[in-house]
Description:
5-stranded antiparallel β-sheet; 3-stranded antiparallel β-sheet; SH3 type barrels; alpha+beta
Amino acid sequence: MKLLIATIVLAGTFFLIRLTGYLNKFLIKRHLKWKVLSRLFPLFELIVGLSAVLWTINYFFQSKSYYNIIVISIIIIFIGFFSWFLFRDLVAGYIFRILNNFQPGIKIQLGATSGRLIEMRATHIIIETGEGKTVKIPYSSISSEIVSEQPAESITEDSVLTLQVTNNKNLPETEEKIRKALLNSPWRLLHREPVIKLKAQNEVHYVFEIQVKTRNKKHQQYLYSSLLKQFEA
């Protein structure tokens, strides 16, 4: 009977953690402020899991003479695992920052991953990949990887261009023509869709703001020159 009750409690704890995990993901999507609080969710999982384990031990062994030894041992094991996961990245990060004096904005290669360095924090490094994704990499996972700085010309540029076009066509047709010119340009990075916004208009001109990603500043200049030749009034 005791085994059945303990199984039900542990199973209930497992489903509680899973349910709160789904609820946590739901709240992150609906409420931006919850994203900060959600960082405490792993701590919640640890506390609930540890409580369930301690309750089970108490349920089975409370009357035993070695009960206190079991409880203390379990707590030490949990603290040991938690400390190992935390401090391994802190120590690896300290060593990494001493050996690599990288500045935000440069492009670096971390093993098989490369991208623009955003920030080096205490336990992880943040980079933006060539696909535009922001990736957090724990220092412990790259401690044995080859780390190198890439040439400056490989750094991607977020470009905001202003283009004035004669309004001899309606607005949707003009936007579509500009979009096709951008998509066919060899100077634009293919993985990032350009964003075209109407900034102003009058009886003669449309003025567009174009957000586009290029490989470097030289490619940005080539792209802008190409657009000016095709559209500038």
